[in-house]
Amino acid sequence: VELHCQDVTQLQLPPSPKYDLVFSNWLLMYLTDDEVSAIAQQMLTWCKPGGYIFFRESCFRQSGNSARPLHNPTQYRHPRFYLQTFGPVQQPVVDDGESD
């Protein structure tokens, strides 16, 4: 297992090795639309063919029932935004010849 914890907008990973899983939890909602698009492209380059990109975001509204400060940098996007953003970067499934 290899873990990277740093500013994702500045993250530069070598072209290989590629990763079986690229994981993000409640990160994209703190980025601009342009940053999310750039990160989506990067995630694809970091992921092995047949690997997985997993991300979890709050959509529509804040989670929990606690009050937030007046300045809240969170962008609660409609799920359609993520489908449109990640849709164009879908990696085609490659047939490795091992399945029936």
From TrEMBL:
Any stretches that span the bilayer, and where are they? none
The record's top EC class is: transferase
Q: Name one Pfam family in it.
A: Methyltransf_25
Domain (Methyltransferase) ranges = 1-51
EC assignment: the record states 2.1.1.103
Q: What biological processes does GO assign it?
A: methylation
Keywords of this entry: Methyltransferase, Transferase
Output one GO MF annotation.
phosphoethanolamine N-methyltransferase activity
Biochemical pathway: Lipid metabolism; Phospholipid metabolism; phosphatidylcholine biosynthesis
What reaction gets catalysed by this protein?
N,N-dimethylethanolamine phosphate + S-adenosyl-L-methionine = phosphocholine + S-adenosyl-L-homocysteine + H(+); phosphoethanolamine + S-adenosyl-L-methionine = N-methylethanolamine phosphate + S-adenosyl-L-homocysteine + H(+); N-methylethanolamine phosphate + S-adenosyl-L-methionine = N,N-dimethylethanolamine phosphate + S-adenosyl-L-homocysteine + H(+)
Matching entries from PANTHER family are given as: PHOSPHOETHANOLAMINE METHYLTRANSFERASE, PHOSPHOETHANOLAMINE METHYLTRANSFERASE ISOFORM X1
Protein's name according to its UniProt entry: phosphoethanolamine N-methyltransferase
